[in-house]
Amino acid sequence: GNSVTQMEGPVTLSEEAFLTINCTYTATGYPSLFWYVQYPGEGLQLLLKATKADDKGSNKGFEATYRKETTSFHLEKGSVQVSDSAVYFCALSNTGKLIFGQGTTLQVKP
Amino acid sequence: GAGVSQSPRYKVAKRGQDVALRCDPISGHVSLFWYQQALGQGPEFLTYFQNEAQLDKSGLPSDRFFAERPEGSVSTLKIQRTQQEDSAVYLCASSSGGGRYGQPQHFGDGTRLSIL
Predict the structure, then answer these.
(1) Which of A10, A19, A50, A101 has the fewest CB atoms nearer than 10 Å to its CB?
(2) Could you tell me the sign of the dihedral formed by the alpha carbons of A103, B62, B109, A45, in that order?
(3) Which residues from chain A sit within 8 angstroms of residue B106, using beta carbons?
(4) How many angstroms separate the CA atoms of B4 and A101, rounded?
(5) Which residues, in sequence order, are bridge partners of residue A34?
(6) pLDDT of A83-108, one tens digit each?
(7) From first to last of its 116 residues, what are the pLDDT tens digits of chain B?
(8) Distance CA B15, CA A107 (A)
(9) A contacts of B110 (beta carbons < 8 Å)
(10) In this structure, are residues B116 and B15 in contact, taking their beta carbons and an 8 Å threshold?
């Protein structure tokens, strides 16, 4: 079946550090891939997406590249800020519904 | 423009009671999804509507769970004879696409349900 696996958190970084959150998936066919973010006290928001192999999604300094050969969609940011502290969810869709990973909590300290 | 609106934000019920959770999607959005999010976990799919048609209810955990969207807009998720394991955040999402998998989904803030 379809599934998403994320690295376990929490991830704690200092401000301006480089961020990587790993995400790998198992799916039939060619799913679309997403990163959603949940800031404290807020709802889930779409951060970025990629719909086919080798596509790069980007938003707010975050990037992720759809790697079919490694079935991965790792999230990266070159320099994190305190305001990036949140829970990040990797997700896939190939039938309309979203299948989420368990989420990774990021804490950025000043 | 308004986003996805869910009510109530918080609901406390005693075990065995029935509850109803409401979702107001973004105006004009064809697709509507319900998800259940347990504490510390990612959301899990419950059911999907395209307009008023319920096209997928494979994620509903038992026949105590029932969802409807009679006029293709507002949706209600009903849970009968609630159990403690039903305690979770229930999320509603809508999208403009007809369920095509590339379309982003817009989420409401959720209803946090606690069963005592």
Answers:
(1) A10
(2) positive
(3) 46
(4) 22
(5) A49, A91
(6) 999 999 999 998 889 999 999 999 99
(7) 589 999 999 999 999 999 999 999 999 999 999 999 999 899 999 999 999 999 999 999 999 999 999 999 999 999 999 999 999 999 999 998 755 567 789 999 999 999 99
(8) 36
(9) 43
(10) yes
